[in-house]
Design goal:
single chain, 87 residues, mainly alpha, globular
């Protein structure tokens, strides 16, 4: 599954505009600068926020989540767990 499909699923599950509001609020948090990932591409924090919400919505485990989605970058399970906890 492509990241764009994940984003669409999250946007559809939340009230209109809520995802953007959440991202705006979370990006102001200093702890967001501590996200893990060896390939922090443009929009990395935005993608981590969306993926964290998708993980909760889907109920998938970290390994299954990471193996089923093409993010356009690599992130390992440990880094994803750390990021979800921060977010």
């Amino acid at each position: 599954m492509q990241y764009s499909a994940v984003k669409y699923i999250v946007e559809e599950a939340l009230p209109s505009g809520l995802l953007d509001e959440l991202k705006e609020l979370l990006l102001k948090e200093p702890k967001i600068a501590k996200l893990w990932g060896s390939q922090q591409v443009t929009g990395f924090a935005h993608k981590m926020i969306t993926l964290s919400l998708y993980k909760d919505l889907s109920g998938l485990g970290y390994d299954k989540l990471l193996s089923s989605i093409d993010f356009g970058f690599h992130i390992n399970s440990k880094s994803m767990q750390h990021n979800v906890k921060l977010i």
